[in-house]
Write a structure and sequence with these properties.
alpha+beta, 18-stranded mixed beta sheet, 6-stranded mixed beta sheet, 42% strand, disordered N terminus
């Protein structure tokens, strides 16, 4: 038996090596508007924090959180007994949720996703994110429980460092699916990429490629992969397989590879074998569903690379417009005429399908707010086919799922209010003004809309119990139910010939269906092999157009109306997947149908000022979190230092602090860093107290000239910096843009003697600056933005050392250009720096433009001009797996040329520093961890002087 002390020593050593795992937990999820006032409700297992004015919605979250709590633990085990903070963000339109453990918190964006299936958004978030609470709480047992007392909540980052992301997210999807009537695991399209790849013309990929991604092929996401693996394991080995696996993971942590060996101990198979067996099982199920009998005529061109065309809208007999996406380019609006494609415009963060009315297209996009992460908008946009212009019709709104009437005068949109109320809103398209508001039945969320020929509006609504089809008479305000509530997902409604057409996965494959309101019957019209989506009709209503999924992406296809299948369907009896059925039977609890126990709900004000600091982690050593996030290969050995530290981040993400002590080069240092983002300007404060300060004095040398001499003194060195900046976000369409004015004040106890007065002054400076940026979003394969620029203007002055120093002016311009081939990129950087040294005795010990690679800074500079050119490109994407050690996704290169011209004083000759070189870089993953690594070497050949140099490159992304 191993010595327990030895294990703790090894575990402590691992903490040092897992610094990256710790800081991966330090997620700043952004802040809400400063005007918000907050409440807190203390529940038995959670502390719920939310903006005032949304009590009704907050109670629903409290009710679901507490009622789901005892059932979430059934198949994963009990977490450590600590209350978990939950924060609601109602002003954010980017539907999402997360759980973080340093500091511990659950953050929920309450706006429902327009891609929502039959499970209401609040239940979806609660079931999914609560499972993460139990997962992370579970691993804080065994050898990791005492680690909490050593390093605080960041211990969870160490504990979960080797837990695969596919397991964490897949198990959470299994929870949302098995504990409700909905969940993504019930959707055929969720696993459709695997089904098409394995049964279609493409070849199957390795487990590593599916789980870690590829720049060469589309590989779905780890949510779907993880769901299939975790669900099959529970189906085959029992409901408690992941409870037992995670228990052994924490008790046998040094049995490498930890997670795979823990799973193998109870299942008798490896994770690789689990992958093979899972998809053999699914392949048998999918083969039984592989009964395609009607193949469409394709209009969109077939591509060699994965490319998708969604939301087709028919202009005329020969032209279709669709949203195009793929690996090598960003989303765009394209027209397809007789198989030939033309780009109309690029798109931003589109969150609806297209609507064509006459010569105009309509959709909604998410647009960020000016300042706050958790306040953004969903606006109605229009593209004019005649003028080619794109415009925003409704700025600063929360509109979703637009539908246009047949005259093209009115739009109907869904609006989910900040307070959780749902409305259908009618808009005048000429003015963008609201004409009428209608509350939805039972406050159901409207995820999609469509007009019929008589001006009635049909909605696909998500209620507390599933999906419903409602029809609204806008003249009387009366709602009528067209279809009884079902758990089957329904999307993309469109009327044609007095009948309602839509997409659903009712039979285990996504197909187009038709509802006849006259008799209430439903028929399946297509028999797609993998999936048919987004129905639309030709102007003559004689052809059905839709997006047909294949392994190479979605393609626009069409079928004559008289060739449609016409098979009766019962939406009350959905296809039952064997895995989903097995999961539901194991749980014996359903949040949609269970009788819920009311919770005591007593909100009280949450005072922001009293909760500025919240210490969540500490350590008997020191590392700088910001430094660890941005470290290079040369700094890896110096990240961790002897010392101690504490970390604080408040619940609202507005105040982040690190304080500590460290020992370096024989000197003790105290260090503090604090950021406050709760006001409109962001405030950064940093200070380092330790080491020896120095004095710079004037003395006469042997030649009788006065020179500056520096000598250390007994005074302790203090370096402090305060920075205030305004991060204005002006992102629009497909360009990320913004303006960031900033002001920095720097102070140190180093003293300089003034040349004339001989007085001593501490060295300090002020640095006002402004940053402008505007660059194109990157496609998956892009290394650099295809177009764009960044411009930074700076002015540095030492106000209390004017006898010695002049002022420093600098401007830096970075531009981005497309390369020779697609996804290649050219970056050109130009900088100019001027220092007013006339009648001054010293040069400022600061530089504002970068040095050429392969050289050191030239201290004496009056004028400096810098130029850098980088050409980045991919060499190849092998998708190689080296057992469980490494997975190599891409090898890329960067060719560069640097030039600097420097003039030390007026009338002096200019000095040149220039170099050429290349970076050879691998993008890869180690030990099957989802955190991508970037490693490589830099080869530098100085041109003017100096020796050939080789540098190591390293970075990690979280």
């Amino acid at each position: 038996m191993r010595n327990p002390l030895f294990r703790y020593i090894c575990l402590f050593s691992f903490c040092l090596l897992a610094t990256f795992g710790m800081q991966a937990q330090f997620l700043d999820y952004g802040s809400d508007p400063a005007r918000f006032k907050w409440n807190i409700v203390k529940l038995p297992h959670y502390n719920l924090v939310y903006p005032q004015g949304i009590d009704s919605m907050a109670y629903r979250y409290a009710l679901y959180l507490e009622n789901a709590y005892p059932h979430e633990q059934k198949t994963i085990g009990k977490p450590i007994q600590m209350k978990f903070p939950v924060i609601l963000h109602p002003a954010n339109m980017s539907s999402n949720g997360l759980v973080s453990w340093a500091p511990r918190r659950m953050e929920l964006i309450t706006t429902p996703s327009s891609k929502l299936e039959g499970l209401s958004w609040d239940k979806h978030l609660v079931l999914h994110e609560s499972r993460h609470v139990f997962q992370m709480g579970k691993v804080m047992n065994g050898w990791f429980r005492p680690l909490y007392y050593i390093i605080g909540e960041q211990a969870a980052g160490v504990a979960a460092f080797f837990l695969p992301t596919w397991f964490l997210e897949g198990d959470a999807v299994a929870a949302e699916t098995s504990l409700s009537n909905g969940g993504r695991g019930r959707l055929p399209e969720f696993s459709m990429p695997y089904r098409a790849q394995m049964l279609g013309d493409g070849k199957n990929f390795s487990f590593d490629k599916w789980s870690l991604g590829s720049y060469k092929d589309y590989t779905g996401d780890f949510y779907a992969l993880g769901f299939n693996l975790t669900a099959y394991a529970r189906h085959r080995f029992g409901a408690d397989i992941w409870d037992k696996t995670t228990s052994r993971y924490v008790s046998h942590f040094f049995n490498i590879p930890m997670f795979s060996n823990a799973f193998r101990h109870y299942s008798g198979i490896t994770v690789d074998r689990l992958y093979d067996d899972t998809f053999d099982f699914l392949r048998n199920e999918w083969t039984g569903l592989d009964t395609s009998v009607i193949a469409p005529d394709y209009l969109s061109p077939e591509k060699k690379l994965y490319t998708s065309y969604r939301y087709p809208q028919v202009v005329d007999d020969s032209t279709v417009i669709a949203v195009k996406s793929g690996l090598q380019d960003i989303n765009s609006l394209v027209s397809i005429t007789n198989g030939r494609e033309k780009r109309l415009c690029n798109l931003g963060s589109i969150n609806s399908r297209l609507n064509l009315s006459g010569k105009r297209l309509y959709w909604t996009e998410i647009v960020p707010g000016l300042r706050w992460t958790h306040e953004n908008y969903s606006v109605l946009k229009q593209y004019d086919l005649e003028t080619g212009k794109t415009s925003i019709l409704t700025p600063r709104q929360r509109y979703l799922a637009p539908a246009i009437d047949k005259e093209g005068r009115m739009a109907a949109v869904s609006r989910f209010g900040v307070d959780g109320t749902n409305q259908l809103v009618l808009l005048d398209l000429a003015t963008g003004q609201e004409k009428a508001l209608f509350a939805t039945p039972g406050n159901a969320f409207i995820k999609e809309l469509t007009f019929d020929d008589n001006g009635m509006i049909t909605t696909v609504a998500v209620t507390d119990t599933g999906i419903s089809l409602f029809q609204l008479n806008t003249q009387t305000g009366a709602w009528n139910e067209l279809l009884k509530t079902t758990s089957i997902n329904i999307t993309s409604p469109v009327w044609s010939g007095g009948k309602l057409f839509f997409e659903s996965g009712a039979n285990g494959t996504n197909n187009i269906y038709r509802l006849n309101p006259a008799d209430g019957t439903t028929s399946r019209l297509t028999s797609a092999r993998f999936g048919a989506f987004d129905p639309a009709f030709s102007p003559q209503n004689d052809k059905l157009f839709y997006a047909d999924y294949q392994a190479g992406g979605y393609r626009v296809g069409s079928l004559p109306v008289d060739s449609l299948l016409e098979e009766k369907a019962d939406l009350g009896e959905p296809y039952r997947s064997p895995l989903v059925t097995s999961l539901a039977e194991q749980e014996q609890f359903n949040l949609d149908s269970a009788t819920l126990t009311p919770v005591e709900f007593n909100p009280r004000p949450y005072r922001k000022g009293l909760h500025t600091f919240k210490i969540h982690s500490w350590a008997p050593f020191y590392y700088d979190v910001a430094e660890a996030m941005n470290t290079g290969a040369d700094d890896l050995s110096t990240i961790v230092k002897p010392g101690a530290m504490v970390l604080s981040q408040n619940t609202l993400n507005t105040a982040i602090m690190q304080a500590g002590w460290y020992y370096r080069k024989g000197e003790h240092h105290g260090k503090l860093a604090f950021t406050y983002s709760g006001w409109f300007p962001v405030i950064d404060i940093a200070a380092d107290y330790g080491g020896k300060a120095f004095d710079v004095t004037w003395a006469t040398n042997e030649e009788g000239k006065e020179i500056a001499q520096a000598a250390t003194v007994r005074r302790t060195l203090l370096e402090a910096e305060a920075r205030v900046y305004l991060p204005f976000n002006l992102t629009r369409n497909h360009y990320i843009r913004g303006i960031q004015p900033a002001f920095t004040y720097y102070f140190t106890t180093d003293k300089y003697q003034q040349y004339e007065s001989r007085k001593f002054s501490n060295f300090q400076y002020i640095l006002p600056e402004i940053l402008f940026y505007n660059y194109r979003r990157k496609a998956s394969r892009d290394i650099l933005p295809r177009w764009g620029y960044q411009l930074r203007l700076q002015y540095l002055q030492s106000p209390f050392n004017k006898e010695n120093y002049g002022s420093l002016y600098a401007g830096r311009l970075t531009t981005y250009w497309p390369g020779i081939l697609r996804n290649h990129g050219l970056m050109l950087r130009l900088g100019y720096q001027y220092q007013s040294v006339d009648n001054k005795t010293l040069y400022l010990p600061k530089h504002l433009i970068e040095t050429p690679r392969g050289y050191n800074f030239i201290y004496q500079t009056r004028q400096q001009i810098g130029f850098k050119a980088d050409y980045a490109f991919s060499l190849f994407s092998p998708d190689w797996s080296l057992w469980q050690l490494a997975y190599i996704r891409r090898l890329r290169a960067n060719l560069f040329y640097d030039l600097s011209r420097n003039q030390a004083a007026k009338g002096r000759d200019w000095m040149t520093q220039s170099s050429v070189g290349t970076d050879l870089i691998f993008d890869w993953n180690v030990f099957r961890m989802s955190y991508p690594l970037t490693t490589g070497i830099r080869l530098i050949q100085p041109i003017d002087y100096g020796k050939f140099q080789v540098e190591a490159l390293f970075s990690i992304s979280f």
